[in-house]
Amino acid sequence: MMRVLLADDESVIVEGLKRLIHWEDLDAEIIDTAHDGEELEEKILARKPDLVVTDVKMPKRSGLDVIRQVQGKSAAKFIFISGYQEFSYAQTALKYGAVDYLLKPVRARELEQAVRKTITQIEDQNTVEIFRGSKDEIQELFRNMNSENRYEGEELYEVFASSGIDFTDKIIVGLCIGPQPDVAAERIRDSFEHYNLLRFAIFNRLSEYFSEHRNGFVVKRDDYALHVLGVFPREEQACYFDQYIRPELETLETEYQLPLTAGIGIEFQDLSQMKNSYKTAQYCFELFFFLEQKVIDFQHVNKVFVDSEKIYDDAVAQLFPAIVARDGSLEEKVEKVMDVIEDMHFGHMMAAKSRVMLYTGDISSKLTDLHMINNDFYAMQDALQNRVAEASTFRQLREIMKDYFRNLMEEVEKSGRNRDSILIEDVKEYISLHYMEDLSIRKLAEVACVSQNYFSAMFKKETGENYKSYLTGVRMDAAMKLLQETDCKTYEISEQIGYNNVRRFVDAFKQIYKVSPAEYRKLLKTGQPVPEHR
After folding, report:
1. How far from the centroid of its chain's Cα atoms is residue 86's Cα?
2. CATH fold of 165-300, please?
């Protein structure tokens, strides 16, 4: 049974990981937990777990510090969990041989898959040097890299065994090569059948190239790319791609008139690192969505993230007021939001697309509820979702968003006549609930999601009076009720209706009702006529 140690500085996370999957069904048991880096290192060396599932950031020592410290002292495998913004840590984790790097919140399926990968690696780790293991071990490793069963492990082993590749003094690196995603999407829309023939021909030519030159072999091909383990002379480590791969890609591009892109994974010498190289190559291929570069090398991906959730919230908060006020800077604000999303989800295309759908859905729903747009909300979101799904680069996604918000602005302008009255009704309701607070024009403009100048003009137009006069009237009505129904003193009433200066309250009351609060109360007690409510 595999022995598992869980670590996170938050106890609730540790308890959640315990219950997230059925560990016993995977032939695994939780032997201990840790809540900081020093405790984790001590327990790894003392309890000798097979697997450590740990957060990256912890007190006293990070998870990455721990994996560095225990290398050579422990055979434990590591699965790291952390936030979107910490991709630079993922690079380091993979460098030190982590099995996987999961993003919070961790899903049960993701954790279970990572644990199964760990089990597979543990089963394979008897093979210490590259391709020095038994035939069965190598077949099993190839089989694990082809979970979709495009190739069987036995078939891949035969390709490897008959390749005649000399691994002496060589570097081995994962490569992921395929048609440039944005162009591929266009060709598929034009003719899927024709594109499929081109892709098939290119993949066959590449397979033949690696086989004939004995500098690599194909381990997998899918609908998007060819996955290769390249083998190149160590003395040409710095230039192997330009010398061996780029010329062949350029030849194929010219012949088939289809641009190609390549992802380069980490170089490795140990069998246990093969899947990491394969995985990082695929990751770099998918980075085309963000970088739009023909060749992306994992070792040169130095994207550094900052904690951008607050920046994101602040940027999104500016969109709704800009739409309502028909602000000319809306496009600039959309650009800002997209910049932040790119930072938050760099390397995770689906996360970026999901984030876009989330915030546009919230804004469109709010506009629909306020009757500020006439189009059916769900139809709008369905149309947007189709466009977002088809985006093959972040640049395209950015343009889709700018176009969407331009259209949204037009819809708001069309229904603008009803909008102002609805907004003012909302503001009046807000005043009725919060008149006892310090209600500045800035606060009320925020409630209406418009600029202060626009709010002032809109309020006067819809009510016939300025907001200060209206607010004063609401407060005076409240004061009259308190005078009629309570024994509160004048200064107490002043405080309860939002005045911090009793003299200002008395003056305002007299200006409207021609008597002071004290005089009003005397009139009540003597049964004389009193001013009516507004």
Report:
1. 11
2. Alpha-Beta Plaits (3.30.70)
pLDDT digits (tens, 9 = 90+) for 387-401: 998 999 999 999 999
Give 148-190 pLDDT, tens digit per residue: 545 454 555 566 666 667 767 788 899 999 999 999 989 998 9
Contact (CB, 8 A) for 37 and 80: no
Report domain extents, the chain: 2-126, 165-300, 308-415, 419-464, 469-526
Exposed e or buried b per residue across 346-378, where buried means at least 16 C-beta atoms within 10 angstroms of its C-beta: bbbbeebbebbeebbbebbebbbebebbebeee
Dump pLDDT digits (tens) for 263-276. Answer: 999 987 665 677 78
* List of residues 6+ apart from 425 with CB closer than 8 A: none
416-434 vs 441-448: helix crossing angle, rounded to 10: 130
**How many C-alpha atoms does 86 have within 13 Å on its Cβ side?**
19
| Domain over 469-526 is classified CATH 3.30.70.2740 | no
Judge residue 422's burial from the number of C-beta atoms within 10 Å of its C-beta, 0-12 exposed, 13-18 middle, 19 or more buried. middle
CATH code for the part of the protein at 2-126: 3.40.50.2300
Partners of 230 in beta bridges: 173, 216
- Spatial separation of the C-alpha atoms in residues 293 and 4, rounded to whole Å: 40
Spatial CB neighbours of 58, under 8 Å, sequence gap ≥ 6: 7, 8, 9, 35, 36, 37, 40
What number of other Cβ atoms are within 10 A of residue 437's Cβ?
10
Asked whether the predicted pLDDT for residue 421 surpasses 90, the reply is: no
Place of tokens 């209206």: 470
Q: Which residues of 385-397 are buried (b: 16+ CB within 10 A; e: fewer)?
A: eeebeebbbbebb
DSSP secondary structure of 427-444: HHHHHHHHTTS---HHHH
